[in-house]
# Entry
Amino acid sequence: MIYKIYALYIKLFCLLFLSGHLFISCNDIYSEDKMEGVILMSDVKVDVEPDLTLPVGIERKVNYEIVPDNVTDPELRWEVADINVAEILQDGVITTKNIGKTLINISQNVAFNVLRSINLNVVGPAESITLNNMEFYEGASIDILDYVTVVPSDSYKVFDYEISDETVISCNNGILTGLKAGTSDIMIKAKDGSGLEARANVKVLESVPVEQIFFHEGQEFALNEKAKLKFSVYPENGVIEVLNWESSDDEILTVTNKGFIEAKNFGTVTITVSNNNGIIAKVNATVAPGKINDYGEYLNVYKLKMDGGGVGVIESNKLVVTYAEGKKRQDLQRGTTYIDVSNYPILAIKRESDNIAKMWTNLDFRIKQGNVWCGVNEEDLKVSNKIDINNNTNVLWVDMSSQSGFEALKSKEMTEMSQFNFKIGHNDTATGYTIHWVKTFKSIDELKSFLEKEDIK
# Structure
């Protein structure tokens, strides 16, 4: 038995060595994992946001879920960059020690690749709290944090609540729901040790029935995307939360009573909205093969190649990558990705750098079945494949249905990629780069239209 255990760990080491060191250029030799019985983690899901704020002197357990759940070794390694700011036990319990910022990295104990990072900001007690009066409709819900002002602004915004009339409003984790028309006072108490309190009045108005809902047709979403359906309501102040929202298949896509969806598997569902009198509106929604819509927190899907040694954090809904000392390259790995060049042929990445003229990006992909490589060096792309946004930002795009290097995809529909890497670096001095988003589009015109609307925003 001891020999079997040693053999397993030797296999794991060999696998990790290969995955971390073979990909040096777009034409590198690639060796896919063929070790029978060895399953490594591809992700770890946590119950906290990528940016976590905690007060000094508390403990906070991070609950997690390993993906897949049948890995060979399920033990995690939790690491804090600055132990003067916080410490973390190997069961995910954080203890905050001093004011400051640090990075928590989570990886598989027998591996080296970081699976998930948390930007921890440890703050002192708030100096002041103000709570504005609120007014909304019976049956509707609001987030009380939208009405709270805390100084400093990055303070710990978690409170205890006291409601004077619980027949008028209810509160669940800071979400207020109007139960009936009327008024109630609410008091919030800071949980950061400051002892601060604030009060406000809440007025609940009589519910306004929705007469019509107008959905945008042809709505498509990326796998695992969370978004809001596009629709308008008549009258505009109609309360949609009191309506019954249903998806025809919750295993493909779920929907909330506010019109927010979560895409779980590929396929098409019918969203039906009804009241006591029957159906008001319905629309088809598709979780589309080939659609990539990585932005904000979804950029956490990109893991930094361990041999780069850099650090990546989500800041202002962008992935900010800092090179390791003495280096000017840090590659990104997306993990399991599905491409469909017949539906979403245009792949685009929005990049930012103080020295973007010297920044390069190579696309390095591999089809799972048959271990077939496809990709392209940036220098092989046409000049028209770059769209300048400003002096420091541009969009690099490629038409995978026609670009040389992607021939293996042209005759295929949905294709699973075992490797989906962006090799990114600089040919001159640079501290790192920023990724705004990575998306696929149905056409160049759709990409340009998106950029025009983004510029307006």
